[in-house]
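Handout, page 2. Input:
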Amino acid sequence: MKDRFEPDYPEELPEILEPEIAEEPEETTLPVPSDLDLVQRYIREANCFALLSPEEEKSLTSHFHETGDKEAGYRLITSNLRLVIKIALEFQKYWMKNLLDLIQEGNIGLMHAIKKFDPYRGIKLSYYASFWIKAYILKFIMDNWKLVKIGTTQAQRKLFYNLKREKEKLRALGFEPGPKLLAEVLQVREEEVIEMDQRLGGWEFSLDAPLKEGSDEYHKNFLPTTEPAVEEILAQSELKDMFRRKLAQFRQNLNDKELDILDLRLLAEKPLTLHEIGARHHISRERVRQIEDRLIKRLRQFLKNEIPDWEDYRTPMGD
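Output:
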């Protein structure tokens, strides 16, 4: 049976987390942010727990590994709370909400690391725990970063962890980190690099939220409209009126067959077929097609002669 604090995470450390990011805790207290009362209180409380000496850590980790003693586990956890805070601060730029969210997930990772830690492998607990703390924090960020989750596939998780770092490496080598080059380095598709870059480049906010505190203006008020401008509506209306007038003049010079083709095929919402027009006038489909082609050419030429710049209007108005 799983312990109460052990979530359903893999038994081994994720391969994408590399040792180069691990650091040892320093023998100093952490700075206290001035704008977050809850975070201030938590950091002050964490600073009250003394760090363990190497001998104490070795003794406690061995004792906990062999007996599972809760008191030993408690001392190991509380002595490493500042490590969790330090790592959470490093990832705060990816989580623009409550820092305590990251600290909480990091603490779960710390507890999981202490349970899994083998004191006989010759490594420090803080070094080993740093990987689990980062793994839990990063998973939390990926699951909650957007309304649409990111990092749902192995390729996306790899991009999330490594995209920024690979960009910096390539720039240091004198290369421009474009999507194609990044895709080759990270062995993913170029489209995935572009998508992840866009997701990491911004943060979601509510359209109903005010622009700033106390403002009467909301983000949704500044969305671009999909409706055409008033000037465009007026211009289109005038053009249609002109077209109708000119079309009425054009109709005066048409015979019965041409009028039927104009009204029942060229201008109709549900045009008749060539066969149906031919049956009305007892002529073949081919003959109707010939009359129609000639009529279209005449109409285009007429409008071109009667309406200035008609060629500029053909695209929006259609033929």
